[in-house]
Amino acid sequence: MTTTENPNKELNELTTILANCVSMELRVKKSEVDMTVEKMEEYDFKYKNSWASMELADHVVIEFWKKDLLKDSKINE
Question: What whole-number distance in Å separates Cα of residue 22 and Cα of residue 3?
């Protein structure tokens, strides 16, 4: 399905996926890392420094976890 076929259905599906997601990795342009981290925090995800994080030529792959799943109380504040 493409977004032009039924954008409302796709948006609902993606909203459900995001609501049920416990972690994710995102490939982010290096110039957009700070903005992406801030945006993900609005959706209750926290950047987690991990061995899975890596740098590519123009991007960084960063891992996010739902805040309520992280055990470090300082992170959950």
Answer: 25
Which residues, 6 or more positions from 70, have their beta carbon under 8 angstroms from its beta carbon? Answer: 46, 48, 76
How many CB atoms neighbour CB 37 within 10 A? 16
- Token pair recorded at residue 41: 């925090």
Residue 23 has pLDDT above 60, yes or no: yes
- CB atoms < 10 A from the CB of 21, how many? 14
pTM: 0.71
Kindly compute the dihedral angle of the four CA atoms of residues 6, 8, 13, 15, in this order, to the nearest 10 degrees: 150
Pairing of the two strands 59-66 and 45-48 = antiparallel
pLDDT average, residue stretch 27-46: 94
Return the closest-CA partner of residue 45 out of 60, 30, 64: 64
Dist. CA 37–CA 17, nearest whole Å:
19
